């Protein structure tokens, strides 16, 4: 019994500490459980967390809030899904970026965007109008499914405003990081300048300002680059970028259907709403929305002011002496718009002072401007921003580069100096310089109004009319300011009262009326077509109202004037010869240095080359007369054989024969130590290579199918070869310029023979045949009594031809 009790006590002694420890642990766990803090519920962000007493807020399209360099957009829910235009521009840039044709104000990208909410995100999407359909039709779903809109950024919804009508998103990262979709440094520049990355420590948001219809963001971005365009040792490119976001009109402007018989820039999309067996391509012209204040008076034929005129603001950086000419260049279009029924439709204004409008900015997309750019580039441009849905022009910035007037001074001297005393100086009279600038601005305004170049306008006037003071003073030197017809180079010494500088012409009135006149009682773009066709038909047979821009059309060439290229270029070269004789007197003898002489001599060669090129355009040329089937005649008509033959004879005499008048020894010996023959060959090659281009030869071969009696490719190549190697038919030495040209002809023919185009057409047959004839001709010529260098030259040519025809 004692043993049993003892055994029980031992078991109890063993179990008791464990039970006590378990009780202690249980008690401890209970205590911990009782004292553990209760987790709090997640705090819902409030409006006051983002918009505080320290926040700077800007009212406008969206409210923009800035707190400690953080930027918040307060997006009204009513604006979600609404289409906006995002325009990326360069506000300031380093010297040399883009090779000189990119400047402050240059537009880099334009895209339609929408802000859309998806769950707790806001998505920024890019919307395309390449394909469209009526949203009431079943096919609309397919168009959407097959044109998925890219998301360029996704934002977290931070909170809502107090009355829950707007949502807040933080846009700081969007505008402070390198987002490729809105960058001002495209891939081509990144490759060119070996850009490695955006340096965040040197990049930031400068300002964000909100206006009633747009938001303007200014970014300062610095990139690490191994080959920057300037300041190379810094390995840095710094840009100041402007992002303009503008709300597109809710009430779309009715588009005007594009017609290639009248020149307009255009927008195009594929419409799948068509009942036809295929999708229709819809194309609308680009134009400003001009609506009469009094539509009834307008329909009665009275001149009426538009509800909203087109206004251009002059850049504050514009030199004072030039402001009036720039303003005139814009205001000159007022008379043109009167033809379309509008008065005071367009005007230029001086920008408001800071006191008048402290918010005024040239980057604000609400304002169109004429920028004066400090750049050595010699050019001017007239870009615009348009609604891709309708073609409505929303804004434009005309750009004038500082050095552009120097180009006009030089061309004025070279092209008109023979017949125009005011041009015979480097100090061109101020009123003439001003007139030139005025006309350049008018030309660029034309682009900004939607008008492209019309190179057929200079072909509308007869040659003799351009030597008439009465005619040129009234009609100018081309039918449109949109042609590249800058100066009257046809007028000869002794012609009186000549207008030498271009001006607005009758075609400009016609095209603006066609594009901008309101047609009464019209409800759709298609209903306008019948009336628009009548306007074109009424002018169809008058060359003054013709539009042309094709490179194969000799009547639509840049910088030509008059309706006969051979006659016009003959007059032009006759004048150039007078200028060449006087070039020293008008330049170096006045300045006591040779810089201007060298510059003007180089440009004189270029002008001569232009005149030659106008005649070369006749060879294999095809006129294009855009028509609808209801009109009589063919669209394409080749230049007559007689005119082409006459042009070839002229080219042999005025281009391929050595032009000794261009090789003035006094000029050459004072501007360069060498390179004369190479320079002349480059100019001659420009014409030679153009004549022997595969596209021209193929066009001539095709023309023979329709017109067997035309000037054919074989006949042209034979005439070219015979003329350039004319010395080989006589006992005659060949001078260095001709030797170079002859070798160049052989080289060009060899390229054609071995080209893909040549091998797959008659081109190779023609070239091979002409090589064989030339080989026989030079075999005889090398044995004639000519000087040693001519013999060596012929032997060299023979060896080259042999190698071409029978390569090792």
CATH topology of the domain at 302-352 and 362-549: Collagenase (Catalytic Domain)
Low-confidence stretches: 2-6, 8-14, 30-34
**Shape designation:** globular
**How can the largest sheet be summarized?**
8 strands, antiparallel
Rounded to the nearest angstrom, the radius of gyration is 36 Å
CATH top level label of the domain at 302-352 and 362-549 = Alpha Beta
Class based on secondary structure composition and strand pairing: alpha+beta
Mean pLDDT figure? 89
Q: What is the CA–CA distance across the termini?
A: 127 Å
Strand segment tally: 25
Strand content: 15-25%
Q: Which second-level CATH architecture of the domain at 302-352 and 362-549 applies?
A: 3-Layer(aba) Sandwich
Count, helices: 24
Q: Percent helix among the residues? A: 25-40%
For this entry, give a set of tags.
seven-stranded mixed sheet; eight-stranded antiparallel sheet; 18% strand; alpha+beta; 24 helices; 39% helix; Collagenase (Catalytic Domain); 808 residues
Describe it.
- By secondary structure, the chain is α+β, with helices and mostly antiparallel strands.
- Among the domains are: about 1-35; about 50-245, no CATH class; about 300-350 and about 360-550, 3-Layer(aba) Sandwich (Collagenase (Catalytic Domain)), CATH 3.40.390.
- The strands form 5 sheets. Strands 4, 5, 6, 8, 11, 12, 13 and 14 form an 8-stranded antiparallel sheet that branches.
- α8 (about 405-415) packs across α13 and α13 (about 565-585) packs antiparallel against α15.
- The longest helix is centred in the first third of the chain and has 34 residues, at about 1-35.
């Amino acid at each position: 019994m004692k043993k049993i009790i003892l055994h029980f006590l031992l078991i109890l002694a063993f179990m008791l500490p464990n039970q006590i420890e378990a009780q202690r642990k249980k008690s401890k766990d209970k205590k911990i459980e009782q004292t553990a803090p209760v987790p709090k519920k997640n705090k819902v962000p409030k409006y006051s967390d983002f918009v505080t007493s320290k926040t700077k807020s800007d009212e406008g399209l969206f409210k923009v809030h800035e707190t400690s360099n953080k930027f918040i957009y307060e997006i009204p829910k009513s604006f979600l899904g609404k289409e906006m235009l995002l325009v990326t521009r360069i506000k300031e840039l380093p010297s040399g970026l883009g090779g000189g044709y990119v400047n402050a104000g240059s537009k880099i990208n334009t895209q339609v965007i929408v802000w859309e909410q998806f769950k707790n995100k806001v998505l920024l999407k890019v919307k395309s109008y390449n394909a469209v359909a009526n949203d009431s039709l079943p096919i609309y779903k397919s168009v959407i499914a097959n044109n998925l809109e890219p998301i360029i950024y996704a934002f977290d919804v931070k909170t809502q405003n107090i009355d829950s009508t707007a949502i807040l998103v933080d846009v700081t990262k969007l505008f402070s990081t390198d987002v490729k979709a809105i960058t001002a440094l495209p891939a081509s520049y990144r490759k060119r300048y070996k850009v490695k990355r955006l340096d965040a420590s040197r990049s930031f948001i400068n300002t964000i300002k909100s206006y009633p219809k747009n938001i303007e963001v200014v970014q300062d971005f610095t990139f690490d680059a191994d080959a920057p365009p300037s300041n190379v040792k810094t390995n840095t490119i710094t840009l100041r970028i402007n992002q303009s976001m503008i709300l597109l009109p809710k009430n779309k402007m009715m588009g005007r259907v594009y017609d290639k018989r009248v020149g307009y820039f255009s927008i195009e999309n594929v419409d799948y709403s068509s009942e036809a067996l295929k999708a229709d391509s819809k194309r609308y012209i680009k134009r400003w929305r001009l609506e009469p204040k009094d539509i009834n008076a307008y329909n009665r034929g009275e001149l009426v002011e538009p509800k909203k005129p087109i206004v251009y603001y002059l850049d504050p950086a514009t030199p004072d002496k030039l402001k009036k000419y720039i303003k005139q260049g814009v205001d000159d279009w007022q008379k043109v718009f009167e033809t379309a029924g509008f008065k005071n439709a367009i005007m230029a204004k001086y920008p408001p002072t800071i006191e008048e409008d402290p918010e005024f900015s040239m980057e604000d997309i609400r304002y169109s401007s004429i920028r004066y750019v400090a750049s050595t580039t010699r050019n001017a441009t007239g870009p615009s921003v348009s609604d891709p849905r309708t073609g409505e022009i929303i804004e434009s910035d005309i750009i004038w580069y500082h050095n552009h007037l120097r180009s006009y001074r030089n061309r004025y001297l070279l092209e008109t100096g023979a017949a125009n005393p005011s041009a015979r100086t480097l100090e061109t009279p101020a009123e003439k310089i001003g007139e030139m600038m005025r006309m350049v601005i008018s030309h660029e305004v034309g682009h900004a109004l939607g008008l492209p170049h019309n190179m057929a306008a200079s072909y509308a006037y007869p040659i003799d009319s351009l030597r008439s003071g009465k005619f040129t003073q009234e009609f100018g030197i081309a039918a449109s300011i949109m042609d590249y017809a800058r100066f009257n180079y046809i007028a000869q010494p002794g012609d009186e009262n000549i207008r030498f500088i271009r001006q607005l012409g009758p075609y400009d009135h016609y095209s603006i009326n066609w594009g901008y006149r309101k047609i009464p009682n019209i409800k759709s773009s298609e209903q306008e077509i019948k009336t628009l066709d009548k306007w074109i038909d009424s002018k169809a047979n008058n060359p003054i109202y013709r539009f042309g821009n094709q490179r194969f059309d000799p009547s639509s060439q840049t910088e030509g004037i008059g309706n006969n290229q051979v006659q016009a270029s003959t007059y032009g070269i006759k004048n150039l010869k007078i200028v060449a004789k006087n070039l020293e007197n008008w330049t170096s003898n006045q300045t006591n240095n040779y810089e201007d002489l060298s510059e003007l001599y180089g440009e004189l060669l270029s002008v001569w080359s232009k005149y030659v090129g106008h005649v070369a355009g006749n060879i294999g040329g095809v006129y294009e007369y855009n028509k609808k089937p209801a009109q009589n005649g063919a669209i394409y008509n080749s230049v007559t054989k007689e005119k082409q033959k006459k042009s070839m004879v002229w080219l042999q005499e005025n281009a391929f024969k050595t032009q000794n008048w261009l090789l003035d020894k006094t000029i050459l010996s004072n501007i360069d130590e060498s390179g004369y023959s190479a320079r002349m060959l480059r100019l001659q090659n420009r014409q030679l290579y153009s004549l022997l281009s595969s596209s021209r030869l193929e066009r001539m071969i095709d023309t023979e199918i329709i017109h067997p009696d035309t000037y054919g490719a074989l006949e042209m190549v034979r005439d070219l070869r015979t003329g350039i190697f004319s010395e080989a038919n006589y006992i005659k030495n060949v001078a260095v310029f001709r030797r170079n040209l002859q070798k160049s002809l052989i080289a060009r023919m060899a390229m054609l023979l071995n080209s893909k185009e040549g091998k797959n057409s008659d081109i190779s047959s023609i070239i091979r045949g002409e090589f064989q004839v030339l080989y026989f001709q030079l075999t005889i010529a090398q044995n004639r009594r000519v000087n040693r260098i001519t013999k060596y030259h012929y032997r060299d040519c023979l060896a080259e031809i042999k190698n071409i025809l029978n390569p090792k």
